[in-house]
Design a protein that fits this description.
single chain; alpha/beta; Maf protein; five-stranded mixed sheet; 5 strands; 45% helix; globular; CinA_C; CinA family protein; CinA-like_C
Length: 164
């Protein structure tokens, strides 16, 4: 957990010195990214809000993900995390939003979308949302921990201005 604490502290410090606010839109992590950030005393200076949208209905109702997107591409897809990120930015006062949707396991995987696959979305206000995927090894806890770390790294990179 020290690694997650350090990554969250880096995000906090970078955002604090640059006067940036962060929002999260989480599915497979169930709020762990927001939890890592809010573990830091004074986090309200940088953490604006978090959306835990585990179900497809929540993704649509809370973040504005289109039903057509979920029907065509599924919850674990580039298109979905882009819309999750855009929705988080539009529904908050954040400067940076990160989203995650994945298959943490142990079940739910397919040959096209294996267990451990996670899609990440990142948006900085005024720029187009980015998306990338990773496949993490290990069990459910390993996948979720790796997802939190990678999401925090993406936010730190964005805060540094190197998210392009």
């Amino acid at each position: 957990m020290k690694e997650i604490e350090d990554a969250a502290r880096l995000v906090f410090n970078l955002c604090l010195e640059r006067h940036l606010k962060v929002a999260t839109a989480e599915s497979c992590t169930g709020g762990l990214i927001a939890g890592a950030l809010t573990e830091i005393a004074g986090s309200s200076a940088v953490f604006e809000r978090g959306f835990v949208t585990y179900s497809n209905e929540a993704k649509m109702e809370i973040l504005g993900v289109r039903a057509e997107t979920l029907d065509k591409f599924g919850a674990v897809s580039e298109e979905t995390v882009r819309q999750m990120t855009e929705g988080a930015l539009a529904r908050s006062r954040a400067d940076i939003a990160v989203s995650v949707s994945g298959i943490a396991g142990p079940s739910g995987g397919t040959p096209e979308k294996p267990v451990g696959l996670v899609w990440f979305g990142l948006a900085v206000k005024g720029r187009e949302a980015l998306a990338e995927s990773r496949v993490f090894p290990g069990g459910r806890s390993d996948v979720r921990r790796a997802t939190v770390l990678h999401a925090l790294k993406m936010v730190a990179d964005a805060a540094r201005g190197s998210n392009s």
